[in-house]
């Protein structure tokens, strides 16, 4: 099988020596080309070329969730077609690796490589659904290009925390659990919409929208994220086999944060966040989030600036993944 290995050399948990060992292991079973990313968006460019020219039957992403997101967007540049497009494989090398872990892959790069080789030998694969976020027609964000995401998107509070983490990483800080917790606290202290949010969630064909949300988290699978080895379930029913789930919170006062933070830390596949200020919706094929003011926006843990209106689509069976 012809394969392209897309390597992020700045991946958090891999070294040059580890990457060399993994490359040799994969090359023993595959006709392997290796490409190291050199700039933001390079993984997307590499995957797009592989999909367009047919030079690879499989694209392997070695890196974190950001690298995986770029590869997915490159593969799906011209739309989803699980039968025509190269398959995707993931070797986790980032700090969280939510997509890989949600697929059931080991979080250790060596073990994950072994699992990938086993899957290739047995022909094990699954076709997963993905989310697509685009600027809403008729709004100031209409020209924003559509972008795919594998496990989560967020508008408001959580995206603001992601942006703060990215700023710290650009200053040389490591992406540790402590860093994330500190930035969440700082985002809360600076939050301007604690008791009445600016976000409205609109569903096609539904007259009464859900208003006054402080944040909206969109999930394509569960867990939503990890705190170290602890899985956190914002939308426990979310699945790669369904459309999209949404968690919305309409209050972030200190008491609400304490309550929902405790619920999140103790969440499980059977129980997520709940209460009178929490809204959860399951298996939505399409919906729109509007905000009265521009708010931070993130996809798969990648801060994308601010948005006022985003339309989401859940696309079933979008991409074949080797697992």
Describe the structure.
The chain contains 8 helices and 16 strands. The chain has 323 residues and is of the alpha+beta class. It folds into 2 domains: 2-123, Probable inorganic polyphosphate/atp-NAD kinase, domain 1 (Rossmann fold); 131-318, Sandwich (Tumour Suppressor Smad4), CATH 2.60.200. Strands 5, 6, 7, 8, 9, 10, 13, 14, 15 and 16 form a 10-stranded antiparallel beta sheet that branches. A 4-stranded parallel beta sheet has the order 2-1-3-4, sandwiched between helices. Strands 11-12 form a two-stranded antiparallel ribbon. Strand 15 and strand 16 (302-322) form a beta hairpin. Helix 6 packs across helix 7.
């Amino acid at each position: 099988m012809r394969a392209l290995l897309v390597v992020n050399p700045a991946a958090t948990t891999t070294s040059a020596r580890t990457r060399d060992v993994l490359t040799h292991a994969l090359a023993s079973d595959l006709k392997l080309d290796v490409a190291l990313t050199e700039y933001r968006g390079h993984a997307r460019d590499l995957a797009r070329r592989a999909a367009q020219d047919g030079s690879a039957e499989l694209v392997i992403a070695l890196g974190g969730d950001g690298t995986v997101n770029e590869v997915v967007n490159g593969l799906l540049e011209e739309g989803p077609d699980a039968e025509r497009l190269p398959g995707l494989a993931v070797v986790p090398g980032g700090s969280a690796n939510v997509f890989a872990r949600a697929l059931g892959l080991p979080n250790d790069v060596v073990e994950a490589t072994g699992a990938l080789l086993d899957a290739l030998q047995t022909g094990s694969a699954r076709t997963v659904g993905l989310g697509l976020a685009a600027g809403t027609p008729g709004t100031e964000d209409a020209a924003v290009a559509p972008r795919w995401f594998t496990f989560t998107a967020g508008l408001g509070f959580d995206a603001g925390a992601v942006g703060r983490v990215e700023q710290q990483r650009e200053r040389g800080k490591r992406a540790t659990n402590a860093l994330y917790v500190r930035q969440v606290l700082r985002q809360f202290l600076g939050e301007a919409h604690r008791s009445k949010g600016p976000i409205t969630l609109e569903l096609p064909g539904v007259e009464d929208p859900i208003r006054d949300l402080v944040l909206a988290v969109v999930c394509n699978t569960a867990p939503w994220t990890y705190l170290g080895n602890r899985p956190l379930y914002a939308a426990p029913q979310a699945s790669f086999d369904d459309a999209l789930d949404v968690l919305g919170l309409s209050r972030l006062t200190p008491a609400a944060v304490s309550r929902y933070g405790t619920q999140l830390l103790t969440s499980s596949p059977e129980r997520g966040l709940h209460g009178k200020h929490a809204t959860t919706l399951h298996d939505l094929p399409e919906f729109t989030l509007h905000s009265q003011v521009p708010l931070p926006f993130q996809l798969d843990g990648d801060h994308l600036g601010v948005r006022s209106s985003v339309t989401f689509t859940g696309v079933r069976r979008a991409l074949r993944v080797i697992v």
